[in-house]
Amino acid sequence: MKISVSFLSCKKILEAVKQINLTDADYIHVDFVDGKFVKGRKIPFHQLKKISKLSSKRLDVHLMTNQLNRYIKKFASLNCEYITFHVEVEKNIEKYIELIHSYGIKAGLAINPDTSLEKIKPYLGMIDLVLVMSVVPGYGGQEFLPHTIEKLKNLKAYLKDSKDQVIIEVDGGIKEDTGKEVKQIPIDLVVSGSYITSSDDFQERINQLR
Ligand code: DX5
Ligand code: ZN
Fold it and tell me: Which atom of ligand 1 is least distant from the CA of 197?
């Protein structure tokens, strides 16, 4: 199980990123909230760019915006392993997946807690990752929504029967107990923010999750 660390709930972000660099986390999870597509903590792109340059980890970018042409292009200039956007944008999804791939970056589709998995199925042959939201997107530090477990299990079973090479990522409210639950499914990539960054010892929290 790989781990991607989110800094969305941190007050001192630059210090948190330096600490993430010292751990064996696989990626740094970069949340971009535009305040329109979802409400939440907005960190402007120019700031995220600075933060990202400080990171020794590759970026796992989570776009919460409708302005995908603009922001895929901007984030593609950074050190991205994945760029993920929401299936709820509904329009031009295939075009944006192709745009991400045109930069040699892996493409992900995110799905909100109340959106049916059916919405994502038509795109599974084109994408590299499905990001299942286990909180309503916008803020770090929320409680994991329990019905996500069923959704993750269903998606896992569906992918097992298909030939698509897609990994599953879960995002929101992952701490020791919820981390154990998703590990059992198992999930490939787990985002964890406040559980890790609220500690003095990030590596110890990452070890707990692993
Ligand atoms: C929520 C974000 C998450 C969040 C995770 O909109 O997408 O990435 O920051 O943070 P925790 O682990 O604190 O829920
Ligand atoms: Zn996220």
Answer: 13
CATH class, 2-209 region:
alpha beta
Q: Give the closest residue to 208 by CA, choosing from 167, 171, 168, 177.
A: 177
pLDDT digits (tens, 9 = 90+) for 155-209: 999 999 888 899 999 999 999 999 999 999 999 999 999 999 999 999 999 999 9
What is the CB < 6 Å shell around ligand 1?
6, 8-9, 29, 31, 40, 62, 135, 137-142, 171-174, 191-195
Listed by start position, the domains of the chain span 2-209
Alpha helices, DSSP H only, in the chain?
13-21, 45-54, 68-75, 93-102, 148-160, 176-184, 194-197, 202-209
